[in-house]
Amino acid sequence: xxxxxxxxxxxxxxxxxxxxxxxxxxxxxxxxxxxxxxxxxxxxxxxxxxxxxxxxxxxxxxxxxxxxxxxxxxxxxxxxxxxxxxxxxxxxxxxxxxxxxxxxxxxxxxxxxxxxxxxxxxxxxxxxxxxxxxxxxxxxxxxxxxxxxxxxxxxxxxxxxxxxxxxxxxxxxxxxxxxxxxxxxxxxxxxxxxxxxxxxxxxxxxxxxxxxxxxxxxxxxxxxxxxxxxxxxxxxxxxxxxxxxxxxxxxxxxxxxxxxxxxxxxxxxxxxxxxxxxxxxxxxxxxxxxxxxxxxxx
Length: 298
Ligand SMILES: [Zn+2]
What we know:
alpha/beta
């Protein structure tokens, strides 16, 4: 069965002057319901401050918690840090951590938020406030839930924040496959980065993934995968530069799950990026991702 983490406070009103919309975190639950798939909803707790501070600069954490992030940081994030934004910024890492805990029991679970891979130690960036992937990975290892974690980032944008926050960690492998010319302009160094050319389509994309992922899994031998399953490599995405079809995204996620299940590896996914004017279409694309990841092999 599909296990999904959602909190009503994942949804927040649009903020003045920002193109970012928080509504897809509610619409994705509507899309799951409309699909008829059987799923169990779980409610996350806010990530405790100490676990956020274990990864982020405490002075930045303080700025977010007291709603006093300076304007240049809010500009870099892409929206103002309001009370609602602050609350969801604590819940989202809590959701990713809970997804991992559930994945350890059930094999797969999805946080219906998260994937905030651009957030850096002392500032947010690119619509990301706190880096749920890095925070959750660090906590899971510190508490003994996993010894080695692969953060698999297939969002169209490079996971620069995750890479920089976890640089030097031998127990966490960061793998980012992204559009080389897309945001961020200055890339960080993941354990392994694959930058793809603009317009890369299904066949070339899947050739890269099928070449790289099994080797990383065999060499690094993680005991858990945190998957940033952004759907923005889709050809219709407003901020993507790649050209995956729906079938290509489907094949991507099924390949990830086959590789994981074949090795007995639990997978926790986060939503990541997905942008477009048709909000419900985006939500359905995210929902389809979770549904197929929870399905047994086909
Ligand atoms: Zn993205």
